[in-house]
Each structure stands twice: as structure tokens, then as C-alpha cells.
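Q: Could you fold this chain for me?
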Amino acid sequence: MSLFRLLAVLAGLAFAGPAFAHAALVSATPGEGAALQQAPRKVELRFNEPVQPLVLRLIDASGAVHDLALQSQGERVVAALPEDLPEGTQIFSYRVVSLDGHPVGASLSFSIGTRSRAPEAPIESASRAIWIWAAKALDLALQLGGAGMAFFFAFLSPMAPTRGFRKISATALGAGMTLVLLSVGLQGLDLLGLPLTSLAEATPWRAASGTSFALMTLFELLAFTFAAMTLTTRNAKLMKALACASLLCVGCARATGGHAALADPVWLMRPAVFLHTMAAAIWAGALPPLLWLALTNASALQAALRRFSTVALVTVEALLILGCLIAIFQVREPAALLTTDYGRLLSVKLGLVALLLALALWNRRIATPRVLAAEKGAARLIAGSMALEIALLLGVFAVVAAWRFTPPPRALIEARTMTDLEIWSGHTKSVVRLEPGRRGDNSVRVELFDHASTPLPVREVTVALSAPQLGIEPRILTARRSDDGVWRIPSVYLPAAGDWTITVEALVSDFEKLTASGVYRIAP
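A: Sure. Below is the predicted structure, expressed as C-alpha cells.
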């Protein structure tokens, strides 16, 4: 009971909290390629969700590198620039971490005075990415396989694992735990953009420990621990409890972070990822022991196949239904399957899963009846099929691990619809954002800056929204100033998609009023 109370608390941590998409840059000031007459005092980055800043470096026109002090204000990251920057093209590179634990980074450039040859931007380490991908793929295979194997021996196997099988399993689970710990350091390297040689330093480990990755690591270590305990205990009831605990931890690990688990609506996506992961673990973990039985004990194989057939049917159905649900929310647009890196990887995964399903159907309809009928050579036949299934599953895990580097299409769509509208009126800039920027209910935020990008104090702000080409006359709304200095309109209904004219009026004093107007495209 103490074990399950602990798991209940940890599961609560896994499922608690708001939903956030993979962070994407919405706007930057100065903007990419901007040509300025004088040096700006600061750079400002805006994202489609709150982020945690990690690194921002400026490489000036002379090639000097400046590490900038960062300030985070929700989805805004601000950094003061050094004084006396030389004329020419400057480049700054940033790296932040989104609330799903994934780092986001890129480089932008702007020019002061005349344009010059841009300095070299920092180069991403290909070797670091390969190490992260390989560790992630192997960790997934060992983690899901270990938890599923524990479930198989606790509920489905007619015999306990032999000493030799336990030794091999213990080695694999130990390697998995080592990979989990190594992944913390690799995650820190990726967060900070550090080379592999920095793995021996404390900095990347501390950086990763301060994100949602730490909780996911805890669940993964618990999953391996419970799986190892399952394979060594002799008590049947305890064995079942430990196997279930391992499966629950595997599901919680995937539900604490990653693209899919933190998508909106979170109340649907987190449970879907949780159940999808556990179903995948049951299927993947059953294959190695079934292959072992097919090669060593034909009678035990018959009993195991009878028990596994019913479980496999439910497991495959759950995998298909939940997998399709997750894919729909992640991709949003069918064209993204071919036009985005995430979609292309998903297409490869779907192809591998289709082959797996074809093999599973062949096993159920042809190979399994032959084994149950004790036909000669049937055990060897199904052993070959299961070996091929294991190889295909490893391919699936390799594809899933590659998603670590690709934002899902839904995040790109959300970022695209949340683009800021910058309206200049003389030396004053109004920055307007409508969220989510689609037809229906939206919130409006307005910020005003002077020519040096310093927030402009004003007394009152009104916003007029109209769509003349749609026959919609101006609707005038009064904004309220929040504690962070942003003027907001909590809710306004936009009945149609298309180009909307936005006019901002700001009362600076009793004798001065600023007016700026621009066009904002509202998505369907």
C-alpha cells in the first residue's frame, strides 16, 4: 500500500499543471535583417509561450563575443546590449528552454549603420545531437521493454525466468539506468549548447536538473528499479504489484514532458500518452521472453501464447486508437505529413507500425495456431517472426527519439497565428498581439515603445477592430494596464477570418495622443 501511495503522489505530479506547446519565436526586436541608424539598447525576443532563458550571445561586427545578461518576463526575454557597438552587421544567438523541457535556439542578425559581412554564428554540434538521439532511442527500447517484460513474467508467463535470462535482463536494465543518468548530462549540454567535452563539468547537469526533465528522469529510474525487482522476486503477489508499478512509472515518465503530453487539451493528451506508452510497453516487452520460450521450451510457449493472444488484441487496439488521436492533435493539417520534418518522421513511423501490424496479424492467424497444434518447425517459424518484430520496434524507437529535435506542426501553426503586429507612428512603435489569432474569442495585448525600444508611459489605450472588406464596422475597446506594463483586452469576439484593421490610440498627456493603424490577418 505504501508503494501505491507513493506512485499516486508521483502520478499526480506527472499529470498536474497547465498545457504548453513547444516554444517557437514569435517576434524579435531588432528584427532579423533590420538596418538601424544607431545601436539599440537591448534585444527582445517574444515566444508563443513562457520560456526559461539559458544563453544569449552577441557577436559584434568586429568578431568580439559578448555573453549577455538575461531577463525573463513570461514569454518575453530581454537582454541589455553593450555600449559602443561597432558599425556593421551584428549577430546574436539565443537558447531557451520551453516548459515541455525542450531547448529552442537560433541566430538572428541586424546591422548598425552600414551592412558588413556577418560574423560566424555558433555551429551546432552534430556529434552532441547524435549522442542524444542514440541515448534516447536505446533508453526507450530498454525502458519500455523492461517494464513490459516484467508485466509478461508477472501475468502471462507459465514459468519464471531462468538464471541466465535474469542475468541478461539485469545487464540490460542496468544499462538502461546508466543511459537515463547519462541523458541528464546530455540534456544539459543541449540546453546550453555546450560541446561533449563539457559533460564532465557540473554546469550542464545543474541546467537539466532545473527543468521538467528531472521529474521524467525520476520516473524512468523508478521504472527500471521496479522492473528489476519484479524479475528477482519469488512472491507472486509482490511480483504483480512491482510489474504494475513499473508500467505506471513508464507511463508517467512520458506524460511529464515531450511534445504530445503537453499539447492542448492537456486533460486529453496526457492520459492518451500515458495509456499509449503502457500499451507499447506491454507489446514490446512480451516479444523477447516469447522469443526465448520459442527457442527453449515449446510447451511453455504454447501456454504463454494462449494467455498473450487476448492481451495482445486489446493492446494493439489501444495503440492504434490512442496513436491516431495523438497524431491528429500533433499534425493538425494532413499536408504537414510531407511538408515538415516531424510529419515525415511520423510517416516513417506509420510505415514501420503497418509492417508490425501485418506481422502481428500473421502470427495470430497462421503462426500461433501452428504452435498450438504442435506442428513441426512452428516454434522456429514464430521465433523468426518475433525477431523481425523486435527489429521493427527498434526502428520505431529510433524514429520516436528523432522527434526530440523537431517541433510538431501544431506548434508551428500556433506560432504562425500568434505573430506580433508592429505599427510605427513617427518614432513610436505599437506592438499588438491577438491570441490565438483565429476566428472566435481572442485576447488583445498592446505595448508601446519609443525609438530606443524603451516602454512608453501612457495614460489610456483604446483599440479599434474592423474588417471593411467583410462589412464589419470598427468596434472600439478600452484596454487596461496590467502589472507587467502591458495593456490588455481580455476577450473580444472576431466572427470571421481574414484581414482585420487594428487602430491603436494612446493618450500620452492631456495634449498629446498617438494613433497607429495596421492590418492583422486572422486565421480560420
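A (continued): The chain has a mean pLDDT of 83.
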